[in-house]
Design brief:
heterodimer, B: mainly alpha, 5 helices, 76% helix
């Protein structure tokens, strides 16, 4: 048996697929520790490489020009995007990649349908769309289908979920990149319309099952799913983006698993299920961190809601707040023994992570204990703040999540940088607040609180924050990066302690 | 697909979901962003199906080939971009101990 025969043998391909699945699982396992995570990623990539390589030897491939062309272009685009993207824009990046994944799965399922019904291949490449329907009808017996329910369901599902992921991720991308207003967009009878479209997909799915030769049903499902992806994502507010990205992540995995059923390819099923599970877990974590149900996030249209601000409008909160300049803040910090820094999306917006690292270094040099408190929904995607701080060179063992709450009561100064809702004590004290019940960081327990903010305007979710009016809180207005640089300057001028 | 094959495939599906839940729940919150971009890259595995579609006729003359071309293209962006960006992020995660080891 020569090498080519071996490589193109079906049993050998399946064997390599098993090896690839093991590599994917090992890669995820190694992601449980930051020290092994990087090699885990390469294990996973190796699995992918092996799977692609062995697939190229398949006897069913008659020419390589399209495969090579698409791979080269894809490699170029993917590589440049991956290398150029700033860490602050990671949520957009993940969203758009998600969308590509969904689109690819849907396209594979669509092609598989036409390959089996033997329709498109006899047509010229142009005007495929309008002739496909007629040609499909002409062929009474559909070769590939034996009226198998699972095969049908998964084919419809992979097109449905794939298309939904594609357009949904695209909308998420546009919102995250702030190419459109990130506030929820609501229109008349939105939920009714979405429900009708969903029912439409189910109805077309049943019709399609009864008459698989009619490609119009199939195109219909694809078209409705395409629109549905837009209409379900557009009403979701910017503050809920971490949930949406995690959810779309899970959808892209489900689409792959469904495509795996269609092709009866176990590797696609394993990989798709792993990704689907990952997205679902992250979605759950995000929902729990906001004390909201998934249903509420998807249908709530939360964020930018005027009702949440109250009838008086923003800034009408009773009580007084204190403010000071960065110099005074620097002098107070000089006397502190322990500091906790709470970053939020505002830190990312003003690109302040490197200045924050400088400040932390300077404080530590003076023997001050510095910790970072990161709320699960700080930023625009799960773990967003951690990546930014890692980029600035802050050790991950200084980053704490909610477990840090017991430390605030014996901390001298908490510095809140561009975070708002995640430090709002109203979540614990006022049942009328829209965020009541959400787990928050107990910054108000520390001796002093410095709040770096542009103005007194409420944050992304449009909720008034009573923390700003607390006795021990002091506002420092201005751009976060400039403020921190000014604090650093003051500390440096004071010299060694 | 005959019934036995479908059952085998379902078997794989159910077990993988359980494996996924076990594995992912052990990933610490600090690595959630790389987890997302990394799992994105894994979901690019759909490229295997896309390659078979794009290579079926090997030229541009068929509708399927064009669908296949875009399927490979999208999946390829996902795979290559996903792994590269994940690696870029993961190399930034360092602890004090790592730094001591290096020096």
């Amino acid at each position: 048996m020569n090498v080519i025969t071996l490589l193109s043998a079906e049993w050998f391909r399946e064997l390599v697929y098993i090896v690839a699945a093991v590599f994917f699982i090992l890669g995820l396992k190694m992601l449980s520790n930051p020290r092994t995570a990087r090699s885990g990623n390469w294990f996973s990539a190796l699995g992918m490489f092996l799977a692609i390589a062995v697939t190229l030897f398949s006897k069913n491939i008659s020419g390589f020009q399209m495969i090579i062309a698409a791979n080269v272009i894809g490699l170029g685009i993917g590589y440049v995007m991956a290398k150029k993207v700033p860490m602050t824009a990671m949520p957009e990046m993940v969203a758009i990649f998600n969308g590509f994944g969904g689109a690819a799965s849907a396209l594979v399922a669509i092609s598989e349908y036409f390959a089996r019904t033997d329709t498109l291949e006899n047509l010229p490449a142009n005007d495929v769309a309008n002739q496909a329907g007629q040609a499909a009808e002409a062929i009474a017996v559909v070769a590939g289908f034996n009226g198998n329910v699972i095969e049908f369901t998964t084919m419809v599902l992979s097109v449905f979920v794939g298309m939904l992921t594609f357009t949904g991720s695209f909308i998420a991308f546009v919102k995250l990149a702030e190419w459109m207003n990130s506030k929820p967009v609501k229109f008349f009878m939105q939920h009714t319309l979405n429900l009708l479209m969903l029912l439409g997909v189910i109805a077309l799915g049943i019709l399609f099952y009864q008459d698989p030769s009619n490609a119009n049903y199939f195109w219909g499902i694809a078209a409705i799913s395409f629109i549905l992806g837009i209409t379900v994502t557009i009403p979701i507010g910017g503050a809920d983006m971490p949930v949406v990205i995690a959810l779309l992540n899970s959808y892209s995995g489900i689409a792959v698993a469904m495509t795996g059923f269609v092709l009866s390819n176990n590797l696609l099923i394993v990989a798709g299920s792993l990704v689907g599970a990952s997205g679902i877990i992250l979605t759950q974590i995000m929902c729990r961190a906001m004390n909201r149900s998934l249903f509420n996030v998807v249908f709530g249209g939360f964020g930018g809601d005027t009702a949440a601000v109250g009838p008086e409008g923003p800034g009408a909160h009773t009580g007084h707040y204190k403010s000071m300049g960065p110099e005074e803040a620097g002098m107070t910090l000089d006397m502190a023994e322990s500091v906790i820094i709470i970053p939020g999306y505002g830190m990312a917006v003003s690109q302040a992570q490197h200045a924050v690292k400088e400040l932390a270094k300077l404080l530590e040099k003076r023997g001050i204990d510095v910790k970072f408190a990161i709320h699960p929904v700080a930023g625009r995607m799960p773990g967003h703040m951690n990546v930014l701080l890692a980029e600035a060179g802050i050790d991950y063992d200084k980053l704490y999540d909610m477990e840090i709450n017991s430390h605030f009561s014996h901390t001298d100064i908490s510095i809140v940088i561009g975070a708002n809702d995640v430090v709002n004590p109203a979540a614990k004290t006022s049942p009328s607040s829209p965020i009541y019940g959400m787990p928050v960081l107990n910054v108000e327990e520390s001796r002093h609180i410095f709040i770096l903010k542009r103005s007194m305007k409420p944050g992304f979710a449009g909720i008034e924050n009573e923390l700003f009016y607390k006795e021990n809180a002091t506002m420092i207005f201005g751009d976060a990066k400039k403020t921190i640089e000014a604090i650093i300057h003051t500390l440096e001028e004071m010299g060694e302690r | 697909m005959d019934v036995v094959k479908i059952m085998m495939v379902l078997y794989v599906f159910v077990l993988s979901i359980f494996a996924g839940f076990e594995l992912i729940s052990k990933v610490p919150p600090t690595l959630h962003t790389p987890l997302m971009s990394g799992s994105n890259a894994v979901s690019g595995i759909t490229i295997l199906g896309a390659i078979l579609v794009a290579g079926k006729y090997g030229d541009w003359s068929h509708g399927i080939s064009i669908l296949g071309f875009f399927a490979v293209l999208f999946a390829a962006i996902n795979v290559y971009g996903g792994y590269v960006v994940t690696d870029r992020m993961l190399q930034m995660f360092k602890s004090k101990k790592d730094k001591i080891k290096k020096t």
